[in-house]
Give the backbone structure.
Amino acid sequence: MVLFLNDKEASHILLLAPDLLGQSLQQRLSKTNKNLYISISQNDLPRHPDIVIWYLENIESTNAIDIELKKLKKRWDPTSLILILPEYINFNSSKLLELESAGLLQSPSLEVLEESISTILNGGRIVRLKENKKDTQSTNRITLGLGQWLLISGTQQIDYDLQILE
């Protein structure tokens, strides 16, 4: 935890990340910006956070992420949420863009994260996703075999049905 002489002037950020990564990010962000009060535990927050940053190590389902984002939004309302995704993901960008968050970053550098925090604190939104090779390969395909087409359409229908159920 980093302490300030005047906590009311500092922007408060709750960082939800794996232990070692969270501690490292907390120290690095605190060193570069003295106007940020960064906590890796909600118990250390002296007041409601201005931003909640959720760092995901892996993604299994965009539906599960969406459910957790809604819980975080409800818990910390009206706080802005930043979702940090791992470098390699198996979802197309359109699914990720449907998630409700003020920031959506894929494997950002420290500078990009700092810039994103500043943008969101000033009322903006930010999305920085890397080009997904899976997306570009699927647009370059001319024909699909019957088996491939059945598999893809079946999984798309299952995803659609899961979204309706949730």
Notes: The mean pLDDT is 81. The chain is about 45% helix and 15% strand. The helical segments are 19-32, 62-76, 93-97, 110-121, 133-140, 146-165. The beta strands are 11-16, 36-39, 51-55, 80-85, 103-106, 126-128.
